[in-house]
Amino acid sequence: MENKGYLINEVGILGGNDKVKTNLFYLFYNCCKRGGEMIDTHCHLSKDDYDDIDLVIKENKEAGVSKMIVSACDKKSMLEIISLKDKYDFLYVTMGYHPSEALSVIDKDLQDLKKNLKLSKVVGVGEIGLDYYYSKEFIEKQKWLFEEQLKIAQELDMPVVIHSRDATLDTINILKKYSVRGIIHCFSGSLETANIYIKMGFYLGIGGVLTFKNSKLKEIIKSLSLDNIVLETDSPYLTPVPYRGKKNSSKYLKYVVLELASIKEMDPKDVIEITTRNANSLFDFNNK
Ligand SMILES: [Zn+2]
For labelling alongside 239, which of 70, 106, 256, 264 has CA 20 to 30 A away? Predict the structure, then answer.
């Protein structure tokens, strides 16, 4: 009960009609009370971004996040998370070289990745993919790195977390060559693209962008089933409204839930239940 003042405060910040307020209350109060069940399928957790990681983790857990899947996507963040992952029960990891690393990764790094992927609590390969917004100068190198890591994911039978920016067609064509499943992280494409990925067996990772005022995603989500969606923050980036502009953290995942609930006219509890079930069916948390 001691949280009540805080809850009222947060509702006050958001405003909205009575139904929204009731939902907010329900979500905040019950999630906090029950220990929560939301899974943040994609976040970053580096000392470069947070002064006190232990505090951040504690706050996230208190805010109803039951699992954080940390994406370690360069050599430095891989080492960092290896030393942190066993300290907290609810931390899990995906590892893979981001396309922006394409020029620096050599064969030996791929061998190291393969070894690291076998460590406890490492549940997927990512984020990997193509980013033509970042640079079009080394597209071939990006494709090489992407495919090498897809081969590893296929061999180890692990889900992949895909980063694709301004590169939809190439991403789809490359993914079709491999037998992999996973998440299209920070999905931002058209309804047609969404349906292609879903048909290929992928989940769409939906985060703070959905809450942005003019987000085209809102309209797209209306036409999709939640059975194809998982929650993510991509923290410290892409903070949802009403905290847009501040540093993101898994504790703000609830605002993505509320936005989904409002768009789909569903109870936030059901949004959490479905997205958590999706994440649990994709990632093997038990054997790791
Ligand atoms: Zn990310």
Answer: 264
Domain ranges of the chain: 1-34, 36-282
pTM for the full model? 0.89
CATH of 36-282, one of 3.90.1150.10, 3.30.70.260, 3.20.20.140, 3.40.50.300: 3.20.20.140
Please tell me the predicted confidence (pLDDT) of residue 12. 42
Between the CA of 187 and the centroid of ligand 1 the distance, in Å, is 11
Q: What is the pLDDT of residues 75-101, one digit of tens each?
A: 999 999 999 999 999 999 999 999 999
Query: 143 near 109, Cβ under 8 Å?
Result: no
How far apart, in whole angstroms, are the C-alpha atoms of residue 284 and residue 288?
Answer: 7
Centroid of ligand 1 to alpha carbon of 5 (angstroms): 33
Question: Rounded to the nearest whole angstrom, what is the distance from the C-alpha of residue 127 to the centroid of ligand 1?
Answer: 7
**pLDDT for residue 208 is more than 90:** yes
For residue 238, how far is its CA from the centre of ligand 1 (angstroms)?
10
State in Å: Cα 100 to ligand 1 middle.
Answer: 12
Rounded to the nearest angstrom, the distance between the alpha carbon of 231 and the centre of ligand 1 is: 13
Burial of 12 from C-beta contacts in 10 A (0-12 / 13-18 / 19+): exposed
Q: Phi, psi (5° rounding) for residue 18?
A: -65, -35
